[in-house]
Automatic annotation (TrEMBL):
Cross-referenced InterPro entries: AB_hydrolase_3, AB_hydrolase_fold, GDXG_lipolytic_enzyme
PANTHER family: AB HYDROLASE SUPERFAMILY PROTEIN C4A8.06C (PTHR48081), ALPHA_BETA HYDROLASE FOLD-3 DOMAIN-CONTAINING PROTEIN-RELATED (PTHR48081:SF8)
Name the record gives this protein: Acetyl esterase/lipase
Molecular function as annotated in GO: hydrolase activity
Keywords in alphabetical order: Hydrolase
Species annotation: Aquimarina spongiae
Pfam family, one: Abhydrolase_3
Domain Alpha/beta hydrolase fold-3 intervals: 73-272
Keyword Oxidoreductase: no
Amino acid sequence: MSLGYRLVKLFLKLTGEKKSWSKDPIDYIAKRKKDIHAPGKLLLSGSSSESKQIDRGKVTKLHPKKKNSGVLLIYCHGGAFVYGPTRENWVFLNKLSKQTHSEAWMIDYPKAPEHTIDLITENVYQVYQEATKLYDPSKIILLGDSAGGSLIITLAQRLVKESKPLPNRIIPITPVVDAGVTNPDIVKIDLIDPILSINGVRSANEMCVGHLSLEDPLISPLYGELSGLPPIHVFSATDDILTPDQLIFIEKVKETNTQIEVIEGKGMPHVWPILPVMPEAKQGIQKIVSIIQGAHVE
């Protein structure tokens, strides 16, 4: 464990992050205090930005000074479907955009409980449709962490189902793949997970699901069709309660012969590549950069 991660763990403990995720119902109003919907120039240093309303959400486009890759990065932030994006999301995406010389879109999608998963996923779909008017799908890479990781997987599943052009690849970072979080292996990991807890995660998912079941593929891509998906690069973490379901997802994807790469963060927490200070997060970002730069873009 690096000194950087020890500092992050200490900060998480002092700010009561784990305790906040133990509440049922989750206090989504308190969580939203960290939201940044209109980032300033300082936060997006080295890039210019512009925002546009699409459907019920907003897209902010980041333009790095050097933009020559021809690739578009579309990012769905995490936040348990109820809050975000946060400072960490903006910093993460801006780093990727600048290091890969690629335009990047942050999807600030509508949140639960005011909006349900059918409306949220529709917004993500509409953003992708808008993107394909400007970019060939083969030049689009989808990224998402936590709930955002779920959203990019369900988007890809919908595109397959509707026989629509697929993105070049998808990069889910510690995604939610089963909203029910009922896997028995989760209980023991809950004891060591420094961020998430079962009660809060399930509570947020219940706020989001509306009239659907928590096992509906729209919110739990584990139960959706997994064949025919674009190449997947999934980041997991050993100290994350969402990992047991991800392991099942990974095995099911492998059975379909879909290309999948697993990047395991040993001793790492939820969304480790986007956390500040940690050298492990820097290594995670460099891995993502290498995936983007190594993508075969026609």
